[in-house]
Amino acid sequence: MGISEASAGQEIGVKKTRQKLIRATESLLQRDGLARVTTRGIAREAGVAEGTLYHHFHDKAGLLHAVAQESMGAFREVLEGLPLQVGQRTVRENLEHMLEAAFDSQLRIAPILCSLFADHQLLLRTREILNERRIGPQCSVEALAAYLQAEQRLGRVAVDVVPGSAAELLLAGSFHAAVLDHLLARQMNPAAARLRLQETVRTLLTGLKPRISGESSAPKDRNVEL
Question: What digits encode the pLDDT tens for the residues 30-77?
Fold first, then answer.
């Protein structure tokens, strides 16, 4: 075996071990909760020595961050692809697709985020990581707001809409649903969960302002393309 092949094999091994640690951490978090998860327990679950964990992650916060990033799943791809959806399909369809991916991610990550508030030191360290790498939930809001602003320039989103506020409302709505599903142990079937998200999008696009009798519930402006 050549040097390059050995190096490639070693790199694959490193990635596999890292993935084992991430999956083990997520499994333990779901089963036992953050307060009871230790680095020793994570290493045992992953089938590696505890010292191995620190070869891949600086500390527990770094490992939790990796789990959170892994939990984003398809949501990251959807966010990155939003610029390509500007002017394509309808705004409603694009937002529904985005929100479904966001909810799937938030349902996985909500227990971790909520648990952080019970560990002040871990919360502070997590904030440091987010600030150092310039990442976090605000990036999702910014990406969605940028998409809405681009659609606004095309006349597909009303001119009086504040893109940032609309983005926050959509993502906060799906996160709220994810937290309640965990809190109340609600297990909605996929169709019902999808309908709930679609109603969130429809409500935002339609707005809360009362309409004159006889006026259509659908906005006159083609900008929101219900």
Answer: 787 777 888 888 888 888 888 888 888 887 888 888 888 777 778 989
Per DSSP, 187 falls in state -
Burial tier of 117 (Cβ tally within 10 Å: 0-12, 13-18, 19+) = exposed
For the chain, the structural domain boundaries read 1-57, 59-208
CB distance 193 to 106 below 8 Å = no
What burial class does residue 217 get, using C-beta atoms within 10 Å of its C-beta: 0-12 exposed, 13-18 middle, 19+ buried? exposed
The verdict on pTM exceeding 0.85 is no
In the chain, DSSP assigns E strands to: none
Instruction: Return the half-sphere exposure (C-beta side, CA atoms, 13 A cut-off) of residue 173.
Output: 21
One of 1.10.357.10, 2.60.40.1120, 1.25.60.10, 3.30.420.40 is the CATH number of 59-208, namely: 1.10.357.10
Say which CATH class 1-57 falls into. mainly alpha
